[in-house]
Amino acid sequence: MSGPTLVIELAKPLSPAALREFRALMVGLSSHFDEKRPGFFDVNVPAERLGVEDRREKDWRKPFPLPLLGNTIADAELTALVGFNPQREDWRRPFLVYLMGPGVGDESTFEAEHADEPEVEAILGFRPTHAVNVSACCNREIDHVTTALLTAAVMDVIGGVAKAELLDGQASVVAGLPGVSGIADDDWMALGTAEFLRAWVGRPAFRLVK
């Protein structure tokens, strides 16, 4: 199942030094790291490494939806297991994080995603030459939170401006947040800094567009 995606718009190509810092960040954050090409990372990122506090109850067993025993007779110990999944929810969240644009890869994707955006360019004050997509591979609540925080962490290293699609009614919520550069596309798009993303995550009912 695919999840939400955020885009980091860049005013110029990443320098070799910035690309090395980008890679070092992803290696440091990841429990699984696979570099498909320079600047394209297939990773698993533990939510805790992004500062997400694990507030799950100590009795973390989750209800298991299937009646395992049916009408059979079982001893007390086996009966006690029914209704619980013994596997803890995995907080190692899968992502594809990749630089795209002329000379680095995924040029057609970059061109398609940046065609005819005069309003966005006016807010940015530049026409993006390259971008980084931060794409979650799952769509749970934790994936929305970690997508925003991972994007902010990448921006701390390489700079750029975050571009986020908005759900209906979200424009009025995000417009007053710190770090917002502007709202575009008839209130369906927000642009801002890493500070904006971190502030937005802290708002009630935070959710990105899948």
Layout of helices and strands:
Blueprint: E1 5-10, H1 16-29, E2 32-37, E3 40-46, E4 62-63, H2 76-81, E5 84-85, E6 92-100, H3 107-113, H4 118-124, E7 130-136, H5 141-158, E8 161-165, H6 171-174, E9 180-184, E10 189-192, H7 194-201
Antiparallel strand pairs: 1-7, 1-8, 2-3, 3-6, 4-5, 6-7, 8-10, 9-10
Q: What attributes does this structure have?
A:
single chain; alpha+beta; 8-stranded antiparallel sheet; two-stranded antiparallel sheet; 7 helices; 30% helix
Instruction: Return the structural class.
Output: alpha+beta
Bin the strand percentage. Answer: 25-35%
* Form type: globular
Q: Termini distance? A: 10 Å
Strand order of the largest sheet: 2-3-6-7-1-8-10-9
Strand segment tally: 10
Report mean pLDDT, rounded to a whole number.
Answer: 86
What's the alpha carbon Rg, rounded to whole Å?
A: 20 Å
Low-confidence stretches: 59-69, 82-88
What's the helix-strand series? EHEEEHEEHHEHEHEEH
Counted by DSSP, the helix tally is 7
Helix content: 25-40%
Biggest beta sheet summary? 8 strands, antiparallel
